[in-house]
Amino acid sequence: MKQSPYILVVNGAKVRRPVFVLGAPHSGVGLLAHALSRSPGFHLTTGHEGVLRAVYAVARRPSVAEGKATGAASLLRDAFAEAWHLTPHTCPRCGAGPRSARESAGPCPHAGEVEHYGDASPDLLYSAAALDTAFDNAAFVQIIRDGRDVVADMLDDEQTLAWFRPGMANLDQELPNPFFGIEDEDERRAYRTMSMAAKCALRWRSAVRLSARLRGTLGADRLKTLRYEDVCGDEVRAAEELREFTGARVSAVELMRTESPGIGSWRSRLSAEQGDDVLASARPELERLGYLRPA
């Protein structure tokens, strides 16, 4: 007998069709998250402590989510139930002034205005399969960006590079290891001597491969894929697509950046050696996505 779909109740109301924003590091997830979070009636969280603990528990140990494991799904549901719960203390609209314990624990006056829930936490992509199990009515928005620009940004981000420190990469426990982009024993042996640019490229390669698999398992009604270069070049069209897919009133203005979008900036930011390392790790994916002309 088919199991009844799980419906999460938060702030006294059912969460229907939550939206999760996915992508490799520095692919534009933050840009989409900003626009969605500014939409009226949309409560979107990013980096909630409980969510991050659950996300990395699944992302760094993908074996826990194999076979539609209900444990990983329950872990994520509990994390989002906490993250999405609105009180005067956690609501961004209630202000951050001092409040009594009773006021902080009580219901938020804005909770009833929320129409959509979502999350755009870092590395959420690696938990996509578990999220699909946890919320079988969820909508996923994923964003793809030129891997060479992604690597250039990753190399300038100390928080991203921290994952590559000795002791952080759990390569001996998990193989394949999508979080670090290691797919077989040969890559695991070579990984320790790879350059930082090559390691970053492997993470991007793994992310776009996961995105491709999602397109093969989820229908167009549940998955929308955007290209960073198109979003930054045509914000009006991107906002229209997001409005149609999520039901949220996304403004094109919120997708506009005040600084350069960095499209093609890898040409001046990556050395020739770093560029070669990226190609060695991810040429097929760059070609498949149209960022590189086939050799």
Describe it:
This protein has 295 residues and is of the alpha/beta class. It has one domain: Rossmann fold, CATH 3.40.50.300. The protein is built from 13 helices and seven strands. The protein has a five-stranded parallel sheet, sandwiched between helices. Strand 1 and strand 2 form a beta hairpin. Helix 3 packs across helix 5, helix 6 crosses helix 9 and helix 9 runs parallel beside helix 13.
Strands, helices and their partners?
Blueprint: E1 9-10, E2 13-14, E3 19-22, H1 29-37, E4 42-45, H2 49-59, H3 70-83, H4 101-105, E5 116-119, H5 128-134, E6 139-144, H6 147-155, H7 158-161, H8 185-191, H9 196-217, E7 223-227, H10 228-233, H11 235-246, H12 266-269, H13 272-288
Parallel strand pairs: 3-5, 3-6, 4-5, 6-7
Antiparallel strand pairs: 1-2
Helix pairs in contact: 2-3, 3-5, 6-9, 9-13
CATH topology: Rossmann fold
Order of helices and strands: EEEHEHHHEHEHHHHEHHHH
State the fourth-level CATH superfamily.
P-loop containing nucleotide triphosphate hydrolases
Query: The biggest beta sheet, please?
Result: 5 strands, parallel
Helix content: 40-55%
Rounded to the nearest angstrom, the distance between the terminal CA atoms is: 52 Å
Tally of separate domains: 1
Number of discrete helical segments: 13
Radius of gyration, in angstroms, nearest whole number: 20 Å
CATH architecture: 3-Layer(aba) Sandwich
Number of strands: 7
Q: Could you tell me the strand content as a percent range?
A: 5-15%
* Strand line-up of the largest beta sheet: 4-5-3-6-7
Low-confidence stretches: 97-104
Pfam family, one: Sulfotransfer_3
Keywords: Transferase
InterPro entries: P-loop_NTPase (IPR027417)
GO molecular function: transferase activity
